[in-house]
Amino acid sequence: MSNQPEEFNWDAVEEKGFGKQYSKEDRDRMAEMYENTLNEINEKEVVTGRVVGMNNKDVILNIGFKSDGLVPVSEFRDLDLKVGDEVEVYIEDQEDAQGQLILSRRKARIVKAWENIQRGYEEDLVIEGVVKRRTKGGLIVDIYGVEAFLPGSQIDVKPIRDFDVYVGKKMEIKVIKINYANDNVVVSHKVLIEKDLEKQKAEILNNLEKGQVLEGTIKNMTNFGVFIDLGGVDGLLHITDISWGRISHPEEVLQLDQKVNVVVLDFDDDKRRISLGMKQLTPHPWDSLPEEIQVGSKVKGRIVNVADYGAFLEIVPGVEGLIHVSEMSWSQHLRNPQDFINVGDELEAVILTLDREERKMSLGIKQLTEDPWTKSDILTKYAVGTRHTGVVRNLTNFGLFLELEEGIDGLVHVSDLSWTKKVKHPSEFTKVGDNLDVVVLELDVENRRLALGHKQLEENPWDTFETIFEVGSVHRGTILTRNDKGATIELPYGIEGFAPSKHLQKEEGSQAEVGEALDFRVLEFSKDDKRILLSHTNTYGEAAKRSEKKKDKPSKPSSAKTEKASNESATSTLGDLAALSQLREQMEQNDSDSE
Question: Basic and acidic residues compositional bias: what residue ranges (predicted)?
Answer without folding.
Answer: 543-566
